Amino acid sequence: MMTKAETAAMLDSAFAATVERIFTVWMAGQGYVADLIPEEFARIHAVAGDDAAYLRVQRTGSKFPLERRTKLVLAALYRNAVDMAVFE
Predict the structure, then answer these.
(1) What is the structure's pLDDT at 21?
(2) What pTM did the predictor assign?
(3) Rounded Cα–Cα distance for residues 15 and 71 (Å)
(4) Within 13 Å, how many C-alpha atoms sit on residue 41's CB side?
(5) Predicted confidence (pLDDT) at residue 20 exceeds the cutoff of 60
(6) What is d(CA 66, CA 87) in angstroms, rounded to the nearest whole number?
């Protein structure tokens, strides 16, 4: 469970930019296409917000043909990026 300070930080645009930067680096490191990265970050951030809710993320639309397992991996990457951004 996130504290109030962590929840408030999630709303901060600078924090969101940090999460996006970390998410982009990790996705690029795993070999995902450059066009996919900003699209998927925006989709996951809009759905998950403060938490990568795996069940909701896999039901949201994407213009890329992604398997369910890939969507779960991306949600996990997003959650890890959020966790890492808290420490920056």
Answers:
(1) 92
(2) 0.69
(3) 23
(4) 22
(5) yes
(6) 30
pLDDT above 60: residue 19: yes
Query: Which residues are within 8 A (CB) of 85 and not within 5 positions of it... i.e. 6 or more apart?
Result: 15, 18, 19, 22
Mapping DSSP to helix (H, G, I), strand (E, B) and coil, where does residue 12 land? coil
Q: Write the DSSP symbol of residue 68.
A: H
Long-range Cβ contacts of 8-11 (<8 Å, 24+ apart): 9/86, 10/49, 10/50, 10/82
How far apart (Å, rounded) are the C-alpha atoms in residues 67 and 64?
9
- Mean per-residue pLDDT, 46-50: 67
Confidence category of residue 57, pLDDT binned at 50, 70, 90: low
| Contact between residue 54 and residue 84 where contact means Cβ atoms under 8 Å apart | no
Backbone angles phi, psi at 39, to 5 degrees: -60, -45
